[in-house]
Amino acid sequence: GKGLGPADSITYTQMFGTHDIDSIDFSPDERFIVTASARGGLRLWHTDSGAEDMSIDSGGGRIRSVKFCPGDKNLVVYGAEDGAVRLWRVNEQRKTEVISPARDPSPVFRVCCSPSFQWVGEKKQGLIAAAYGDGTVSIWNMETKEKPIRTARVHRGGALSVAFSPDAQKIVSGSEDGTICIWDARTGRLL
Description:
The chain has about 190 residues and is mainly beta.
């Protein structure tokens, strides 16, 4: 296919507009790219043609982080300026689900799914983690998502990053204060 490249930047700019792209990710099958804008929109693009497939409004202002869930090519997790964490099933067009309600004034800086995260029928399996501007990190088990496994303010500065280990047993978070924390993904305890 044609693919994305520097020669296409004018075309993509014209299609997307002049809004900042705060976050971007490939789908697990690499057929799509999802972008998150400073104006609060999510857009899904075909990687081969560059054509926009669909877009939605985040419902929470600026989106700082968007990630496809590695185990489910149709599932996107994103975090917004209002502090909410949401899931978007791209195969269901505009339907989103709130994982964590808005918690102004602490924005979500980064979100991620465990490598095996899946949504089968009505059942979700796996973990989601979010890093917040107030130094808080939250971890949810999607099978029992009523409340997080753990929410803790462990960084003095904003928690800017969060990631799962390849085996999904640990989570690491990093902050603007220079600290790194390693978590047990199942219990939410700091290691």
